[in-house]
């Protein structure tokens, strides 16, 4: 083992390693909190000065993370967390964890610009004895083909002078039955020494570390997890459309199938896919597969089905309005829930944004209500709207209330009672027997 390995291993063991987290969003900020919880001092890096300003004041911008927790870490008697936009402070870090976005371009191709710019900043300040971990979801080969050459360009060598791993994030906003601590952590290193140090670091914050043989295996593991969900959601979305034609309740079918204690896992239909992973990650693999002259037909078909779900929902809204003598053009529509999933304040890739776009293109007047997102902004979509109040007087003004996100705080019985028409994409109104409820 090299001196750099031995020294860093000791710092990690004694919790004296200085940990830097790049990207303080839904993935990075929870990791910051976890390292602070177990006794490390953490520096958080972000290019957004507003995020850094709020964190320095002890304020959270993520709903499920209380501001009191942030305040205690940055303002307590012995502060353990510092937020900064100054990347030169990377020079003082012993471990650097990258949690930056990996979106798709307008052509549905991987956009690794955030990883590239972050790698360039780390390379400027990289010193011997540093561990670098990439957590951002990407295609197999990114760590070794993109990040490794950038970090070795200055003459340091991975596995000897510095250490490089890929350890995919497994964050699921709003989930309460699993946490960072209780969710196993995959770690794959460029070398065995890299993997050993990465595993040692993450073992301080999770109950179980699962080492794998390479960064490529770790990268593919995350893609498999999300493609598995994407394909199964596409299947149940397609069955939902078939069941509608056959006059069969798909949700009743799923609940009945769930009673089988083996060989079945329930997936649920909806208005489309949302979030930072499932709508995007499969396309990273389809793009990389072309390099090997391989067509990922299953993945692409699932993506096509899921992408078309908002159009199916709008068609169901049109049909429901037509049955009541109304056309979609000129109708007033209230979309309930703009977050991509229930009980979170996360707007990324939300199907509600696509529903609003399509409805407006067809001439409808559209508002939304979401207690988790009083102001909805999507820079990529050039979208900005404010939530409209959900009152008895207000809800009755709409020709249709479209349930897109089934937040637990909504009183669906009250909503159905006070609405002219409810189109439900989430089975939120299950058990309510009202003629003004239509499933979509």
Strand % is 5-15%
The CATH superfamily of the largest domain is NAD(P)-binding Rossmann-like Domain
Largest sheet: 8 strands, mixed
Total count of strands: 15
Explain what this protein looks like in three dimensions:
The chain has 440 residues and is of the alpha/beta class. It is built from 14 helices and 15 strands. The protein has helices spanning 3-13, 28-37, 49-56, 67-75, 113-125, 142-152, 192-202, 215-246, 250-257, 281-289, 297-323, 351-361, 392-395, 412-418; strands spanning 19-22, 42-45, 81-84, 95-98, 131-134, 163-166, 185-189, 209-212, 332-336, 365-369, 375-378, 383-386, 400-403, 422-424, 437-439. It folds into two domains: 3-217, NAD(P)-binding Rossmann-like Domain (Rossmann fold, 3-Layer(aba) Sandwich); 246-439, NAD(P)-binding Rossmann-like Domain (Rossmann fold), CATH 3.40.50. The longest helix is centred in the middle third of the chain and has 32 residues, at 215-246. It is globular.
